[in-house]
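User: Predict the structure for this protein chain, please.
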Amino acid sequence: MIAIELYLAVSLLMFFIGIYGFIARKNLIAILISIELMLNAAEINFSVFNRYLYPQGMEGMFFTLFGIAITAAETAVAIAIIINIYRNLHNVDVRHIDSMKG
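Assistant: Here is the predicted structure, written as structure tokens:
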């Protein structure tokens, strides 16, 4: 059986890669992918803590599935917004978003 520390290390690594990508990237798609990495890291934590604290319970798995469903819906809405921004500006760079004002 794999130790809990290894799962948490993978989750921590994914979360910090997501934070770095969110801060460092200027492309909206790359920022969206970074947010997805952070959400997936949280979902790994739900599953791992459920497995190790309550091996017979399924609450953590249900939270994980619910989180995946919400993440999929959030991604669909975000991609629709990004497509509309691209249609108006012909660019998905964060620095050019403020030109839509007015």
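The longest helix spans residues 59-89.
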